[in-house]
User: What shape does this take?
Amino acid sequence: QVQLVESGGGLVQAGGSLRLSCAAHGRTFSNYAMAWFRQAPGKEREFVGCISRRGGSTYYADSVKGRFTISRDNAKNSVYLQMNSLKPEDTAVYYCAVHRFLYSVYGREVREYDYWGQGTQVTVSS
Assistant: This one.
């Protein structure tokens, strides 16, 4: 069974930082783009950022550009999200996901991803 496990969420003050991790189990995803999404209560799940299969290209939502950095370590079958200068509006459950197509490079739509983790809560206080 494929399993993605997010960790690193928590409570942080505005302006602070958190580093989220996503470890994949059951399959190697080194040939797939991976992404982070987030979902706040009452809102649709939204794209945060994605990274190409080798980590050479990254893409971010405008709302987090310049503050968040996505990276991956294919030897560990893991992807990370470094979040700096956090704002209260960043509060959400954060999910990692694997793109549905082999050798994928980019994707910002929920429907483009087949495997999802259970999410980790990030709460930013003012």
